[in-house]
Design brief:
Distance between the termini: 19 Å
Number of helices: 2
CATH topology: Alpha-Beta Plaits
CATH superfamily: Reverse transcriptase/Diguanylate cyclase domain
Number of domains: 1
Strand content: 15-25%
Strand order of the largest sheet: 1-2
Radius of gyration: 14 Å
CATH architecture: 2-Layer Sandwich
């Protein structure tokens, strides 16, 4: 896992099919949602939206895969946030 942008992170799951990638994304989403975050003695509710893309080998470059994951992320946000969506 690595930081990709200001508030964006990427995870590369080698040898994971779409079903496994979605399950891992959902586990991460649920863990973040139930984690108690404290800032200046105040509980802060945190949720995340996750976009999943699968490398099929037909992408012309890694940018196409990143764009697919980014489009899925925006779908997750448009559908109400705090969810995992495959692109």
């Amino acid at each position: 896992m690595f930081r990709y942008g200001g508030e964006e992170f990427a995870a590369v799951l080698s040898n994971a099919n779409l079903r496994i990638a979605l399950q891992i994304g959902e586990r991460i989403r649920a863990l973040v949602e139930k984690t108690a975050f404290l800032w200046k003695n105040q509980h802060i509710s945190v949720t995340i939206s996750i976009g999943v893309a699968l490398a099929t080998g037909s992408e012309s470059d890694s940018l196409a895969l990143i764009q697919s994951a980014d489009a899925a992320l925006y779908q997750a946000k448009e559908r109400g946030r705090n969810r995992v969506v495959a692109g």
